[in-house]
């Protein structure tokens, strides 16, 4: 059966499950056993997990995917699945009483955040001592909330961060495959030059140009044809309707539109939502036994259960997978796990900043929530910054140009297990972010000087110009070739794998999901050939 036919079958199953309010989605019957056994379990449903589930299912391996968030497929009372950024409601955040948006203020006024009811919302901001980590919650993981920027890293930097991976094979086979599977597309250049949607990006490009910096178009998984039709008023607005970070109702090819329905459509993959994997252990015969907790959308625990499997794939993201492995090691369940577990964590050098534009330099009321252009200074060995030109989709003119700069530094943190709270703790000091700020500042000082502009000091809750107390791009903890072998097999145990952003040591130099997907494609191909 073709992949597109499988995807259609899977989409139908997802829609049927949503309509019935089911938390288990499958094209086969559900198991009623007390402690069900499945050949393979995949934890999570982000990029690594979804890729792995599809390939397992396609190879005929019965697979169970466990995702702690909900399936985002049912419209609320307002007829929409997701809320926008201007009026966020309970659907926006994972069990919070107030939203926690990255842009904390405008003119120091808390105009951005709203009180909400606690609910299994789509965006989580995980708090640690000196760093917060944004992640997506729900079927599709980060793909539900992210900006869709689909960037293949520069080959020389990829070789530097993952020297043991065959780059020739990655760039010939797995990066193109990931781009194709994810539905990556590019903005029409002629349209870009005259549209309203990217007026803000053209303005930033002109300002960068005056300082001698070049820009690069950034591919995206948002359907740019749909965006053009949004601007033409032909279809409901999403990227132009202030939708990003709390989900997109239209236009975006998130994983629940691509890999996941294709996986379910194989007939071998069952998806169980609102199910958090709490811990796992290994029995004498090698079987893994997972303890799971099922919640409802209001957070009530509906049951604790167990599921057993032979092959266990961790795709719960950098923090999620590392926490599960650390817990297993520190509680003695899997004592042979690597001593390097939790090491080489990094925020991908994320630094957010805003510039204050002259009154005549308006960014426009209409701003696509999906960025399409980046200031590209990656070739500079001293300040190798890639700064995506980000929207401020506030619906009002803010005279702010916003950027998420991805800088490259060697600063790394560590994820540890805190026995008292039975949870992961991120060891990262704010001062470790300074080299990244210095790089971003070197670039944007020149842009400000060339344009007679200055930084905005009103956007991050206090007076700072550079915000690096959060990251969108958590990476590392279970580094490839260290905690795992060169294909994601966890050292010390058989049939245990990591398949997500935790494999990458702290930095990709660009937005990471294409790299995570391509690596997952590469690793699962080898694992299927040799371990099944
Ligand atoms: P991830 O997508 O985080 O998926 C992990 C999944 O596992 C989640 O669905 C969790 O709910 C689930 N999970 C965790 N723990 C458990 C458990 N114990 N039991 C069951 N389920 C669990 O992992 N990247 C780009 O390349 N381009 C962008 O434009 C971009 N923009 C971003 C914007 C925002 C606001 C955010 C938050 C991220 C952005 N990213 C972007 C980062 C990107 O989404 C992220 O690197 C990937 O989603 C990470 O993929 P993983 O497979 O590692």
From TrEMBL:
Keywords: Cholesterol metabolism, FAD, Flavoprotein, Isomerase, Lipid metabolism, Oxidoreductase, Signal, Steroid metabolism, Sterol metabolism
Keyword Signal found: yes
Needed cofactors: FAD
E.C. no: 1.1.3.6, 5.3.3.1
Gene Ontology MF, one: flavin adenine dinucleotide binding
Pathway the protein contributes to: Steroid metabolism; cholesterol degradation
Protein name, as recorded: Cholesterol oxidase
Protein's organism: Saccharopolyspora gloriosae
């Amino acid at each position: 059966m073709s992949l597109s036919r499988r995807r259609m079958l899977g989409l139908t199953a997802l829609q049927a499950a949503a309509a019935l309010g089911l938390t288990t989605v499958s094209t086969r019957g559900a198991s009623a056993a007390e402690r069900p056994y499945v050949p393979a379990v995949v934890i999570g449903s982000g990029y690594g997990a979804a890729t792995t589930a599809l390939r397992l299912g396609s190879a005929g391996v019965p697979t169970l995917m466990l995702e702690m968030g909900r399936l985002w497929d049912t419209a609320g009372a307002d007829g929409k699945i997701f809320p926008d950024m201007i009026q966020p409601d309970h659907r926006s955040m994972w069990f919070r009483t107030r939203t926690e948006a990255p842009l904390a203020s405008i003119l120091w006024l808390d105009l951005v955040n709203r009180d909400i009811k606690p609910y299994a919302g789509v965006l989580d901001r995980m708090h640690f001592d000196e760093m917060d980590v944004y992640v997506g919650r729900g079927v599709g993981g980060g793909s539900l909330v992210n900006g869709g920027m689909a960037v293949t890293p520069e080959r020389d930097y990829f070789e530097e961060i993952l020297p043991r991976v065959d780059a020739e094979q990655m760039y010939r086979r797995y990066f193109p495959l990931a781009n194709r599977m994810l539905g990556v597309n590019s903005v029409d250049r002629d349209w870009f030059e005259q549209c309203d949607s990217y007026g803000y990006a053209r303005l930033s490009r002109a300002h960068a140009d005056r300082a001698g910096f070049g820009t690069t178009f950034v591919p995206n998984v948002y359907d740019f044809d749909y965006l053009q039709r949004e601007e033409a008023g032909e279809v409901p607005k999403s990227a132009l309707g202030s939708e990003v970070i709390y989900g997109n109702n239209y236009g975006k090819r998130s994983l629940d539109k691509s890999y996941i329905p294709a996986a379910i459509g194989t007939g071998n993959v069952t998806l169980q939502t609102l199910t958090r994997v709490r811990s796992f252990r290994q029995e004498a015969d090698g079987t893994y036994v997972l303890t799971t907790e099922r919640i409802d959308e209001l957070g009530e625990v509906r049951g604790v259960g167990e599921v057993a499997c032979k092959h266990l794939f961790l795709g719960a993201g950098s923090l999620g997978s590392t926490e599960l492995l650390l817990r297993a090691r520190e509680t003695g369940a899997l004592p042979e796990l690597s001593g390097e577990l939790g090491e080489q964590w990094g925020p991908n050098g994320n630094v957010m900043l805003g510039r204050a534009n002259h009154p005549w330099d308006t960014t426009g009321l209409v701003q696509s929530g999906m960025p399409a252009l980046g200031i590209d200074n990656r070739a500079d060995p001293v300040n190798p910054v890639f700064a995506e030109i980000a929207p401020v989709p506030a619906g009002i003119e803010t005279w702010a140009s916003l950027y998420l700069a991805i800088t490259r530094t060697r600063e790394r943190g560590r994820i540890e297990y805190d026995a008292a709270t039975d949870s992961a703790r991120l060891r990262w000091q704010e001062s470790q972010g300074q080299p990244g700020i210095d790089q971003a500042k070197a670039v944007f000082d020149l842009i400000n000087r060339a344009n007679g502009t200055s930084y905005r000091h009103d956007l991050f809750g206090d007076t700072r110009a550079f915000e690096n107390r959060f990251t969108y791009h958590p990476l590392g903890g279970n580094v490839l070739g260290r905690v795992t072998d060169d294909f994601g097999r966890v050292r010390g145990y058989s049939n245990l794998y990591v398949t997500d952003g935790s494999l990458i040591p702290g930095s990709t130099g660009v937005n990471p999901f294409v790299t995570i997907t391509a690596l997952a494609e590469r690793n699962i191909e080898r694992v299927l050939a040799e371990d099944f």
